[in-house]
């Protein structure tokens, strides 16, 4: 007589949840998640654990009888998932954030490990369900960042992307193994054009590769997501076939990406309805939408997919992503909340953390938010028209369908002052999700804070994020460092810049003239290093209001097809510009090769 161990574990929420429950109930006798996986591999569990499960079920107010799991062959993975899904509500919308993976594929938006950790902490504070922390097989640095995030995050699921091959899947499995809740997200292309020209595989070979990848991923976690790259341009019958096969293999979430942003909302809703109905076991898994914004319809298509039956949406903060970007998390969340009468779904996101998260991502990546961007743009709640202003004064709801406060616009509160001490500074950083790794880094950041406090009367949370970002950049990229800068500008005279920098500890000096002080500064830097890089973007953004606000500058350079973003912040915009240019040169110098998968 066999024990249906899969169904037993699923009834307790899966290996991770079961391990947590047992350890909470019996702290003196801890059980690891790996041990529970071994129960499943053996098809049995120790008698002592059977007794504990009975006690645990009793504490939870439900019946447990080991005989109910005996006397039948083990269920298929699809049947197990169908059983566990009975407790899931159909109005629950899972928010899957891929800012750290797909968003990082924006030109020049690569992030350091420390920057990814800061964003991951803020995403957890925001309340996203799944954090796709990266693509583990891309580089050892990516794998290390995912592993670190997996060990830090308490509530959100930590996910790693993997192509449908053994190297990628095993790299992802190792990266997430320390996560309290981990997911492997594997994918392969399914459209005729991709299978023929990119993969050069037959449909049968694609199905076989997908099934093997999912089964391999199940060796590491029960939470496996499968994506059919370029799904919205794939044959729907073939999609139903491959999705049915991966459900049988153990996939629990199925992602239907609009990889090239080709879809339109009406067709997307119909496509999801038809695909779910055609797929064997389609009612036992979570269906997901991942939409790109090439035609400006990523959010609209994502919401259409929700109407069509999707219960997970993959998105990024500020719509960050390669080409025209991805669906914006903030727009999806607020659309489903504001128009609950249409979408009838709930999500766990704390909307008051939307604006702080948007500002953090913008600061770290160097991608400013356009003023008229929905929800998080500076003008999103500004009213210029006299008619609008009159209506707002009489009744805010006349022209506002949501309040600025509801998405976090009131949270950039005064933070610290010039009399604040080191401990208060450290405590505030921790509150913001910033944990510096050494006393040296903390001391250097505190010194910068004191310098800033002497220049700027009021210091806000955004100032601290910019300050720490600037400090981490200087710590990690010390090859070139700004020592001093003097600029001269006079009406009718050619501006000049006199700069001193340190290269590998050796001071170098240069003077140059230019069309303006920024141009002269950049020419002085280039005269020292002759990088040959082409400037693609120069952007200035005020971090907070007021003439004493820090200026945040982004400089995007391209050299040998490598694109980097450099960031700098200072109350003097010329100094901030010099820091940003030097930051970009340091990134070019510290060239790290990474593998980028075709985005799903």
Automatic annotation (TrEMBL):
<dbReference type="InterPro" id="IPR059216">
    <property type="entry name" value="LeuA_carph_isopro_dom"/>
</dbReference>
<dbReference type="InterPro" id="IPR005671">
    <property type="entry name" value="LeuA_bact_synth"/>
</dbReference>
<keyword id="KW-0808">Transferase</keyword>
<feature type="binding site">
    <location>
        <position position="292"/>
    </location>
    <ligand>
        <name>Mn(2+)</name>
    </ligand>
</feature>
<keyword id="KW-0432">Leucine biosynthesis</keyword>
<keyword id="KW-0963">Cytoplasm</keyword>
<dbReference type="InterPro" id="IPR002034">
    <property type="entry name" value="AIPM/Hcit_synth_CS"/>
</dbReference>
<dbReference type="InterPro" id="IPR036230">
    <property type="entry name" value="LeuA_allosteric_dom_sf"/>
</dbReference>
<comment type="function">
    <text>Catalyzes the condensation of the acetyl group of acetyl-CoA with 3-methyl-2-oxobutanoate (2-ketoisovalerate) to form 3-carboxy-3-hydroxy-4-methylpentanoate (2-isopropylmalate).</text>
</comment>
<dbReference type="InterPro" id="IPR000891">
    <property type="entry name" value="PYR_CT"/>
</dbReference>
<dbReference type="Pfam" id="PF22617">
    <property type="entry name" value="HCS_D2"/>
</dbReference>
<dbReference type="GO" id="GO:0003852">
    <property type="term" value="F:2-isopropylmalate synthase activity"/>
</dbReference>
<dbReference type="InterPro" id="IPR050073">
    <property type="entry name" value="2-IPM_HCS-like"/>
</dbReference>
<keyword id="KW-0012">Acyltransferase</keyword>
<keyword id="KW-0464">Manganese</keyword>
<comment type="pathway">
    <text>Amino-acid biosynthesis; L-leucine biosynthesis; L-leucine from 3-methyl-2-oxobutanoate: step 1/4.</text>
</comment>
<feature type="binding site">
    <location>
        <position position="102"/>
    </location>
    <ligand>
        <name>Mn(2+)</name>
    </ligand>
</feature>
<comment type="subunit">
    <text>Homodimer.</text>
</comment>
<dbReference type="InterPro" id="IPR054691">
    <property type="entry name" value="LeuA/HCS_post-cat"/>
</dbReference>
<feature type="domain" description="Pyruvate carboxyltransferase">
    <location>
        <begin position="93"/>
        <end position="355"/>
    </location>
</feature>
<protein>
    <recommendedName>
        <fullName>2-isopropylmalate synthase</fullName>
        <ecNumber>2.3.3.13</ecNumber>
    </recommendedName>
</protein>
<comment type="similarity">
    <text>Belongs to the alpha-IPM synthase/homocitrate synthase family. LeuA type 1 subfamily.</text>
</comment>
<feature type="binding site">
    <location>
        <position position="326"/>
    </location>
    <ligand>
        <name>Mn(2+)</name>
    </ligand>
</feature>
<keyword id="KW-0100">Branched-chain amino acid biosynthesis</keyword>
<dbReference type="Pfam" id="PF00682">
    <property type="entry name" value="HMGL-like"/>
</dbReference>
<keyword id="KW-0028">Amino-acid biosynthesis</keyword>
<dbReference type="InterPro" id="IPR013785">
    <property type="entry name" value="Aldolase_TIM"/>
</dbReference>
<feature type="region of interest" description="Regulatory domain">
    <location>
        <begin position="481"/>
        <end position="600"/>
    </location>
</feature>
<dbReference type="Pfam" id="PF08502">
    <property type="entry name" value="LeuA_dimer"/>
</dbReference>
<dbReference type="InterPro" id="IPR013709">
    <property type="entry name" value="2-isopropylmalate_synth_dimer"/>
</dbReference>
<feature type="binding site">
    <location>
        <position position="290"/>
    </location>
    <ligand>
        <name>Mn(2+)</name>
    </ligand>
</feature>
<keyword id="KW-0479">Metal-binding</keyword>
């Amino acid at each position: 007589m066999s024990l249906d161990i899969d169904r037993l574990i699923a009834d307790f929420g899966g290996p991770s949840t079961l391990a947590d429950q047992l350890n909470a109930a019996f702290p003196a006798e801890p059980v690891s998640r790996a041990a529970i996986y071994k129960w499943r591999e053996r098809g049995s569990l120790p008698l002592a654990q059977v007794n504990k499960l009975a006690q645990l079920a009793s504490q939870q107010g439900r019946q447990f009888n080991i005989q109910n799991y005996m006397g039948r062959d083990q269920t298929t993975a699809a049947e197990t998932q169908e059983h566990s899904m009975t407790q899931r509500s159909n109005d629950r919308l899972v928010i899957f954030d891929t800012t750290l993976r797909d968003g990082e594929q924006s030109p020049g938006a690569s992030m350091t490990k420390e920057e990814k950790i800061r964003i991951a902490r803020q995403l957890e504070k925001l309340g996203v369900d799944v954090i796709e922390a990266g693509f583990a097989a891309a580089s050892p640095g990516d794998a290390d960042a995912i592993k670190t995030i997996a060990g830090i995050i308490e509530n959100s699921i930590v996910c790693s992307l993997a192509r449908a091959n053994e190297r990628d899947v095993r790299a992802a499995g190792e990266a997430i193994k320390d996560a309290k809740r981990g997911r492997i997200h594997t994918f392969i292309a399914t459209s005729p054009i991709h299978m023929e020209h990119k993969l050069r595989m037959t449909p049968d070979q694609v199905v076989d590769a997908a099934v093997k990848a999912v089964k391999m991923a199940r060796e590491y976690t029960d939470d496996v997501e499968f994506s059919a790259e370029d799904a919205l341009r794939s044959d729907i019958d073939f999609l139903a076939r491959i999705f049915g096969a991966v459900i049988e293999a153990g996939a629990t979430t199925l992602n239907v990406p609009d990889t090239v942003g080709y879809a339109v909302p009406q067709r997307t809703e119909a496509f999801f309805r038809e695909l779910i109905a055609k797929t064997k076991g389609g009612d036992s898994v979570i269906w997901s939408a991942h939409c790109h914004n090439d035609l400006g319809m990523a959010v609209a298509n994502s919401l259409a997919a929700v109407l069509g039956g999707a219960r997970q949406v993959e998105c990024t903060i500020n719509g960050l992503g390669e080409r025209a970007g991805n669906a914006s998390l903030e727009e999806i969340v607020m659309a489903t909340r504001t128009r609950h009468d249409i979408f009838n779904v709930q999500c766990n996101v704390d909307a008051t953390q939307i604006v702080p998260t948007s500002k953090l991502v913008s600061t770290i990546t160097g991608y400013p938010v356009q003023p008229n961007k929905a929800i998080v743009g500076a003008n999103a709640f500004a009213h210029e028209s006299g008619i609008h202003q009159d209506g707002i004064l009489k009744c805010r709801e006349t022209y506002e369908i949501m309040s600025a406060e509801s998405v976090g616009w009131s949270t950039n509160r005064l933070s610290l002052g010039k009399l604040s001490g080191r401990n208060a500074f450290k405590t505030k950083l921790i509150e913001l999700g910033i944990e510096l790794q050494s006393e040296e880094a903390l001391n250097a950041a505190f010194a910068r804070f004191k310098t800033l406090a002497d220049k700027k009367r009021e210091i806000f949370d955004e100032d601290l994020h910019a300050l720490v970002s600037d400090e981490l950049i200087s710590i990690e990229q010390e090859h070139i460092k700004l020592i001093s800068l003097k600029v001269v500008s006079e009406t009718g005279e050619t501006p000049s810049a006199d700069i001193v920098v340190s290269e590998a500890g050796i001071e170098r000096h240069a003077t140059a003239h230019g069309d303006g002080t920024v141009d002269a500064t950049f020419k002085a830097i280039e005269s020292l290093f002759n990088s040959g890089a082409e400037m693609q973007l120069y952007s200035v953004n005020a971090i907070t209001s007021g003439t004493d606000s820090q200026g945040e500058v982004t400089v995007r350079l391209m050299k040998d097809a490598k694109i980097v973003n450099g960031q700098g912040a200072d109350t003097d915009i010329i100094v901030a510009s010099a820091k940003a240019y030097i930051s970009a040169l340091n990134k070019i110098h510290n060239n790290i090769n990474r593998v980028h998968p075709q985005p799903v």
